[in-house]
Amino acid sequence: MGAALKVLVGNDAEGLSASTISRLKKEWGKQYDEWRSASLSKDQWVYIWADGIYSGLRAEKEKLCALVIIGVNERGQKQFLAIEDGTRESTQSWREVLLQLKDRGMNSSQLTVGEGEGEADGDGDGDGDGAMGFWSAIEEICPETRHQRCWVHKTANILNHLPKTAQPKAKKALHQIWMAETRTNAGNAFDLFIDSYDAKYPKAMANLRKDREELRTFYDFPIMHWQSIRISNPIESNFGTICHRIKGCLNRNGMLHMMFKLSQCAEQKWIRLRGFDYLAKVIEGVKFKDGIEVISVNQMAV
Question: Which residues, listed in sequence order, are joined to residue 69 by a DSSP beta bridge?
């Protein structure tokens, strides 16, 4: 926890008394409670990213995880919308988080990015049931939003089913799918990958095949946004460091409050989404094909 205190209060952290640290924790807890009840209705949330981040903290026999959601508004500003705890990434846990966000005024986003069903849930046991809970909940609470499976999670999951000697070549082939310039080319590369590995690794290919459409949803959105919406990196890139810094938190409230404060520090360094001026078109429902705006015949006539 010392590393987190140094980030939050500066080089004087080492000299803080126990009473001062206790007072700071209470203040951070109050700020967290105010933040998680603040209205979200003033913004249009266009994209959201969701992930379950596991910490080293345990509740009885299970590791606790933070259910994290980041959103980008119509101005391209990224913000943490939720940092809640759960013993597992269950449907009920995610349902509660999403209902709370909806009650605070969050609209259904145009696109939700998260890991695919059946992929690693971060607790190291390999059962991969966490993402299933999230997608079930988002389908129920926000049925209008479209789904994009994270290609980083998907790639890691597929490679985990292959021997190490086969992984470099397979990784390159997977990369060619989601880096293809068009949905059609991605589909061709997808089919080639399945044909190449299905006979020997049917379980891995079944996992890939079932998410075929959700892995290519990004082609229906502006090409300037692709690097951000193909993966759930906005969460993982920040929480890798945050989880390292909160070691030493002894309870779930302390974990959440510290995560919240460190996430606010991280937010201050974020820049607007690349191509943010296209977000208005996404909100308006403008159609995109392979990342390019579709111009109707009537528009061309004008």
Answer: 50, 82
Burial 252-278 (b: 16+ CB within 10 A, else e): bebbbbbbbbbbbebeeeeeebebbeb
Report the relative pairing of strands 62-73 and 45-59 from DSSP bridges: antiparallel
Closest CA to 83 of 227, 274, 267, 283: 267
Give the bridge partners for 148, in sequence order.
Answer: 113
SS3 211: coil
Angle among Cα 157, 216, 238 to the nearest 5 degrees reads 55
Residue 14's contacts (CB-CB under 8 Å, 6 or more residues apart) are 2, 6
Q: In the structure encoding, which two tokens stand for residue 292, read together?
A: 């390019």
Cα separation, 100 vs 105, in Å, equals: 9
CA distances to 184, 214, 293 from 219, rounded to whole Å, are 10, 10, 11
pLDDT at 1: 47
Q: What is the side-by-side strand order in the sheet with 146-149? A: 78-86, 62-73, 45-59, 111-114, 146-149
Summarised one tens digit per residue, pLDDT across range 22-40 is: 788 889 899 999 999 999 9
- By DSSP bridging, strand 288-289 and strand 292-293 are antiparallel
d(CA 46, CA 71) in angstroms, rounded, equals 7
pLDDT of residue 127: 36
Please tell me the pTM assigned to this model: 0.86
Q: How far apart are CA 41 and CA 38, in angstroms?
A: 9
Give 194: exposed, middle or buried? Use CB within 10 Å, 0-12, 13-18, 19+: middle
Average pLDDT over residues 244-266: 77
CATH placement of domain 2-149+221-301: 3.30.420
Q: Which amino acid would we find at residue 20?
A: T
